Amino acid sequence: MAEMMDIPANIGNDNPQDPAILPPDIETADTDEKSDWQVEERIQKALLDHLSTELDVAKKNNEKVNENFKTVYNMIHSIRNRKPNEWESDISLPEFLSRLITKIGGFCTQYFASTDYVENDLESDDPKDIAEAKAAKKLLNILLKDPDAYYYHKIVRLITFVFSSGYGIIKGGYSQRVEQVISHMNQKSELAVDPDTGDYLADDGMPFRDPTVQRAKFNTIEEPVYKDQIMIDKPTFDVYPNQSVYMSPEYCYSLNDKEYVIFETEKKLSQLRGEASEMGYFNLDFLDDETPEGQRGEKTYNEEGKLKEQPQPPEKTFVEYERWGTYPARQEDDRYVPAIDAQGKFEEGAELVECVIHYIQDREKDTPRHIIGFRKSKHTRRPMVKFLCYVDMVDDNGIGDGEINRELQIAVDDNFNIGAYRTTMAAMPSFKGKKFSGVPEKVKTGPQHVTMLENMNDLEQWIIADNPQGTGYQHNLLCTRMDFAMATSPQTGGMPADRAETATVGAINNQRQNIRSGMVNMNLNFIGFNEFYRMLLTLCNDFMLPETLNDLLGKEVAMEYKPKRKDRFRPTSQALENDESKQFNIKTLQGLWGMTAPIQNPNTPKVLNMIWAGIVDLMGTQHAALKSVMFEDDPETVLLYQLATGSKGTGTPPAGPQAAPPMSNQQGTPQRQPEQQMRSAANG
Question: Using an 8 Å Cβ cutoff, are 96 and 79 in contact?
């Protein structure tokens, strides 16, 4: 890590002082007068055309994602995706939603049961290796516990995307601001000078001529001494909606391996100007002449299109596209520019450089208008992570519960609405009448209405049979199939079905649920969380100042932190275990305790302390204070204690001989405890 004075004032999302971000102060004859990017206007246009074509292809490939999201969104909000017949009622039962909430609730109660979110996945017993891994673990937990990170809210939002749509995406960044503030004031004395004549003054205000009879007058001057103060220095991350992220179509195991990844965000002009120095934006003056039109938030908060647009918004809102990926570029002086000519052809011998490109369009239905950012990435790895629910064979976006249960939810809604319509038809009387009988087509029925007929056969009632039992049976069948698909027990809120069903069925469902939830947890851990933790540490390694690291970890722990380590992490073991597994492990540790405690060995207390710590971890954070209160585990101290007291390794005194049962009769026959209790109960 660099020293603090070597780090520029602002670094967030790539160092803004890096020459690849801020263009040098040079003039180019061929550069457009209004553009503040030192690249010819025709080159900018060719670059924008190429990026627009790439974006169009990416949006076309993303239509399946948009369709899947809309379907899942409607299922969650009880909106029917289709209505086969106009005469049907339009009711959607929240069968999928109830199971989805149960699944999310199970994850939250497990993952957030501990305030320590991360645990090392370390197999080494080297003390130095363990200390370095603990330093990385402590840093991660501190970052995730930051109240301004909104970790719980973001993870629940992410998991909702993952479980329902199959995948979710987190994008990281870095926020850093260092300002110069006054540290203290230095005082120094200077000879007073007459402002008119420039002569030195004596303390009586007269010109200072003779030092033998006069005393010089001194003025005290205070000069401020400045220091660098870190205002903010931390990694950031947020969840991006799936429909706002465009990726190259090839199958990849990580977003870092994609040819390109494009993030779509709505930003106000004032926000873009505020980020200009940090992100290295240019060409923002072009946006003053633009008039964005169209609905905002079409893919997110205004998905249903029911929110009205403000007629005259005080600020202009644009759609920004942020492209991460390799792009042909060449280095000019100390900056990178796109290696593309005015005809849109890439230059021969151009270097493929990991670049971050920003371009703007007015609204979703418009086309990109201006390039506002082009720089070489300063990140070691792309700060982005994809989480998967289930792994697909050919689609790296995976499979979600929404896709699995989509047709079942449609069948549930259709079955219920047809059954409801049939019940309505059976309850409401319908008639058939003889033609030319004179009976009116609209017949009023009721206790006060009499229909006059010449022939009783002129008007007859349709007999429509209702079948609520069949509708209910079909509904239960479909819901059972959905239970099989999601491996949930919604009758008991996701808990083991030991009260709502028979013991055998409950045990089978509970086992199936544990297997499925265990697989999903492993997918989240190995595919998502491991890379997420790596992303946060990489951001810290790339940009965090040493002073910030010392403040977060303490100087001693910070000295153990090694940026080049490649640790593997996992959510805490307590977070991934259900109650039955915890109780089983506690019983196992208690058995080990019983076998270890009688052993007289200097290392016995150390082993017991490890067993005790494992039990307390499984018991939860409310008992965490007990973890540090246990036996002395220094072998030399324990051995000396044994020699001095003759006690066991745990420090307990040796057991004395058991006292004989008391005498109870004149013969002095010993009585055992059960017999004593019986005689006592019988009063002798």
Answer: no
Amino acid at 405: N
Of 400, 374, 395, 398, nearest to 322 by C-alpha is 374
Residue 663 lies in a domain: no
- DSSP code for 448: T
Give the residue from 230, 166, 156 showing the smallest Cα distance to 4.
230
Identify the burial level of 632 via C-beta atoms within 10 angstroms of its C-beta, where 0-12 means exposed, 13-18 middle and 19 or more buried. Answer: middle
Calculated CA dihedral for residues 267, 273, 279, 285, nearest 10 degrees: 100
Of 435, 458, 486, the last residue of a domain is: 486
Q: What are the strands, taking DSSP E only, across 144-299?
A: 167-191, 218-240, 245-247, 260-268
Rounded Cα–Cα distance for residues 152 and 167 (Å): 18
Q: Provide the CA 12 distance to its chain's centre, in angstroms.
A: 20
Selection from 466, 471, 468 nearest residue 428 by Cα:
466
Residue 566 lies in a domain: no
Domain limits at 625?
579-645
Domains in the chain: how many in total?
2
According to DSSP H, which parts of 79-214 are helical?
Answer: 95-111, 127-145, 151-165
pLDDT tens string 292-341: 877 777 777 777 667 777 777 788 889 999 999 999 999 988 889 999 99
pLDDT at 8: 41
CB-CB contact of 539 with 174 (8 Å): yes
Which tens digit of pLDDT belongs to each residue from 210-219?
Answer: 888 888 888 8
What phi-psi label fits residue 198: left (phi over 0), alpha (psi between -120 and 50 degrees) or beta? left
The answer to whether position 195 is within a domain reads no
Residues whose CB falls within 8 Å of the CB of residue 421, separated by 6 or more in sequence, listed in order: 87, 88, 89
Query: What is the Cα–Cα distance from 408 to 103, expressed in whole angstroms?
Result: 18
Give the per-residue pLDDT at 663. Answer: 52
pLDDT tens digits for range 80-96: 866 766 767 788 899 99
Q: One-letter amino acid identity for 656?
A: G
Asked, for residue 311, whether it belongs to a domain, the answer is: no
